[in-house]
Amino acid sequence: MNKVNLTIDGRQVTVSADSTVLEAARKLKIKIPTLCYLKDINAIGACRMCLVEVKGARSLQASCVLPVEEGMEIKTNSPLVRTTRRTVLELILSNHNRECTLCVRNSHCELQTLAMEIGVREISFPGELPERPVDQQSPALLRDGSKCILCRRCVALCHQVQSVGVIQATERGFQTTIEPVFGKSLNEVACIFCGQCIHACPVAALQEKDERDKVWKALADPDLHVLVQTAPAVRVA
Ligand code: FES
Fold this sequence. Notes:
This protein is of the alpha+beta class and 237 residues long. The protein has seven helices and ten strands.
């Protein structure tokens, strides 16, 4: 594999030519915040938390989807990057149910952790919150759309890893939501209750429930049983 040399925050690094800038930075143990990125599973450049400055580029670039190039010069912590990163985080938080102290993921939430690390204490963009109701119909998990940050990590897990594909992004812009397919509730689609989407969720948009009797009853469905047998179990770090 060809190698590429680049400079990140003044430090030289050599990586394989198919790497991204985020991977190169991680090789140097330089931390770039991410939310939507899941290694090998979800690299879609959606959240923009991983923006970096590239010498010669006209705008900041999402490092998780930015291929390395020979001689690149990257800044991950310049004043422009820090200011923009903070604005991006505030925008994400402005669309998020911020009742953190009442949340099951309080103190285990990637969004909350980032807000604390970056020092966001208030939101400059108060406004309307999208209406995304709670779906409690599934016996195994609860969906709280008011907490969803639209990172699509759950969608990638469900489709690409588990090969189940019962959730998807629908609508556009402010109306965008992550929903079960065909406009159904989770108990009406072929969810196999693997729970991988919960592990993938950086916030508390997906939460565990424990109604075992109902889960076993649903798993007795012969069509669903085939899916359970074929879906590989994975652990998301
Ligand atoms: Fe790169 Fe979300 S982590 S855009």
